[in-house]
Amino acid sequence: MNQTKLSLILKAIEDKKGEDIVSLDVEERSPFFSNVIIATISNTRQGQAIAEEISKVLDNISEPIKNIEGKKDSSWILIDAGDIIVHLFTPSERIRINLENLLEQSLGE
């Protein structure tokens, strides 16, 4: 189910025009989740649309989202989909946080 879920999330992000999508497989290094997805959004409205689309497609396969943080007017939206974590950043916030680098360092990639 995880590959199907992962594919649906990635497609939802692509369909709503998320950019610079990175999917990291962390299953061997994290006891909490198997994948981290990072994508760039052009604005908060697009981020909300992506979060809603992910929620919709996961509801369709009976895999509801556990939580969404920063949904309204936020430059960083975090979606907890259980074994998959999604981070949606505006361009400036993605540069500021530099999550890819932090994950690589902490997970030993």
Q: How far apart are the first and last residues' alpha carbons, in Å?
A: 25 Å
Number of domains: 1
Question: Helix share of residues?
Answer: 40-55%
How would you sum up the global shape? globular
Low-confidence stretches: none
Which range does the strand content fall in? 15-25%
Q: Examine the coordinates and then state which fold CATH places here, giving the name of the CATH topology.
A: Beta Polymerase, domain 2
Which structural class fits the helix and strand makeup?
A: alpha+beta
Tally of separate helices: 4
Q: Return the CATH class.
A: Alpha Beta
* Major beta sheet summary: 5 strands, mixed
Tell me the series of helices and strands, N- to C-terminal.
HEEHEEEHH
Mean pLDDT: 91
Beta strand count: 5
Short description:
The protein is of the alpha+beta class. It has 4 helices and 5 strands.
Summarize the topology.
Elements: H1 2-15, E1 19-25, E2 35-40, H2 44-60, E3 67-69, E4 76-80, E5 84-89, H3 91-97, H4 99-107
Parallel strand pairs: 2-5
Antiparallel strand pairs: 1-2, 3-4, 4-5
Helix pairs in contact: 1-2
Question: Can you walk through the features of this model?
Answer:
- The mean pLDDT is 91.
- Helix 1 (2-15) runs antiparallel to helix 2 (44-60).
- This protein has a 5-stranded mixed beta sheet with strand order 1-2-5-4-3.
- The chain has one domain (2-104): Beta Polymerase, domain 2.
- The radius of gyration is 13 Å and the shape is globular.
- Strand 4 (76-80) and strand 5 (84-89) form a beta hairpin.
- Helix content is 43%, strand content 25%.
- The chain is an alpha+beta fold.
